[in-house]
Amino acid sequence: MNSSVTYERQGEIALITVNNPPVNALGHSVREGLLHALQEAQGDAQVRALVLLCSGRTFIAGADIKEFGKPPQAPSLPEVVNFFEQSDKPCVAAIHGTALGGGLEVALGCHYRIAHHEAKVGLPEVKLGLLPGAGGTQRLPRLAGVAKALEMIVSGTPVDAAQALKHHIVDELFEGDPRAAGITFAQRMLAESLGVRRTGEQTAALNAADNATLISVKRAEMEQRMPGAFSPPRCIAAVEAATRLPLAEGLQLERALFKECLASEQRAALVHAFFAERQCGHIDGLPAQTPVRSIERVGVIGGGTMGVGIALSFVNAGVPVKLLEVSGQALKRALQRARDIYAASVTRGSLSREAMEQRLELLHGVQDYSDLAEEDLIIEAVFESLEVKRQVFERLDRVCKPGAILASNTSSLDLDAIAAFTSRPQDVVGLHFFSPANVMRLVEVVRGRHTCAEVLASAMGLSRTLQKVAVVVGVCDGFVGNRMIFQYGREAEFLLEEGGTPEQVDAALRKFGMAMGPNAMRDLSGLDIGWSIRKRQRETLPGGYPLPTVLDKLCEAGLFGQKSGRGFYQYAPGSRQPQPNPEVLPLLEAASREKGIERRVLSDDYIVERCIFALINEGAKILEEGIAQRSGDVDVIYLNGYGFPAWRGGPMFYADSLGLDKVLARVQEFHERFGAWWKPAPLLEKLAAEGRRFADWNLNS
Hints:
By secondary structure, this protein is an alpha/beta fold. The protein has 28 helices and 19 strands. It is globular and about 85 Å long.
């Protein structure tokens, strides 16, 4: 027996235990060990039942990422799963922690499954551009039904133990030790003569619904939500096979579809995104053993949408928060906003009323800065004005205890200037959350010139507590995300002057895969917010820069987006569904006439190149300036904060996949046609000339 899998017998029960820390991943040695253990159990005449266990903190949590991209080694996972299912001795999987991907597929191959009440199970392969390739698409529908199987497989989102029990994925829940629970269940199997029950032979769940309709609806939903994605439609096709084919034929089709996904460019992009997210926590110049400060009490200044969202992010993690508003009425509105957000979750069924009240007990409203004197971390989320920030940080500097971390949620202002308003710039850091902060995963952690290593490490550790994705960025106007989106949005606005309509521009970029079109996104965030930022930025631009005027014209006409019911689109009262706004086209035509532009028909490809290549060119400048450490960090920001399609890997990976020589050639064309805005980034020119990629580059190369 190898060291990754142990075999022992207790009376008539064989215990097969996976021991491959930290997450018992299904590497070659584990697969080989499982197969040998199964063979030993089958050949042991004294064994009448089997228990599959995992040591450590979790059941099998998926594939071994160290094997990604390497040639497969026998035995394959499908072989192992099939061997479990074909056992002539009943087998139970005792699940604790997480059973994900191949881990759940192994459990589905067992004849029974029990789960710790805090366990989670799922098939997240779609998030890596794949589909479950070891029987998951065939066996899960036979237990949970087509609707639940489609939901889990197409989204990749795991379910908790209670949901797994409700949908017959597991047979019962347990508390305490998985080993003891597994042995107890196996003893009951024998006492009650619960024999072999092969998942692949189950049919009741498949016969309980109109599967054709469920599949048709899921296809339509997927095409709307994920246009262009490669693996989701194949996930659906594989589940559909479970409703139409015998198990053996369904497994063959699943494997063929799995291999198609494995060979796709999208799989490579999603694997890149996976590793980029893991890597962004490694920060240049920050030793791994850097001490962190304890953050047990938090203050948030500003009770608007952003401030309340930030406060709830901490409350959700069990951290008490003092929310400061200097006006009693404003504070009352802020606390009500927090209650309303939780109440909506209760209505949706994603939060119990008891949990809502428990969380709200951690949120305390205050009106005086002195109430923040003992907090470990204070985050301001006030109006985006340097003067307003100055007033806040000067007060914090006077009242906060030594060692308190002072953080700004600024989305674009100079963090070094903000830090200079205090006598402790080493304790100042940027924590740029994305709205709604209690939902969005991304935080840009802005490292100022004087931010000390301890504060930076504490900010990164905090993000893990909040279950956020944190990316360290440097100081510049807009940092990484907003600096790049300015270029993207500028081109989208120029396209409207050239002849595009909001509907066409948005549709082209949605077809490319963006979660929202730029015009709908601006309506959502509020056109007036960008108006104030543009006025400030234009003061620093050199003369002769061409500036679009469409957004200014909309703002001057009072078209501020969803908040006013009219923007690029119009919105019925209480609705977020955009409808064409007849007021917009005359404004676009006026903007074109004023600049002497003859409006023309634009192709979707042209629209995409103008907007996406603007992102890429600015991203190259950001990398060369050291504002971001690596191209993967830029990608993580765009995948998690700006709705860039994950299956394209992020803007910098997408550029690499196209070939930087091709990207540069198009950027040079745009530079010749449109002027200074499109000057190619020196790094783009350098890497294209050398035949290299952004992924190969670092600041010291």
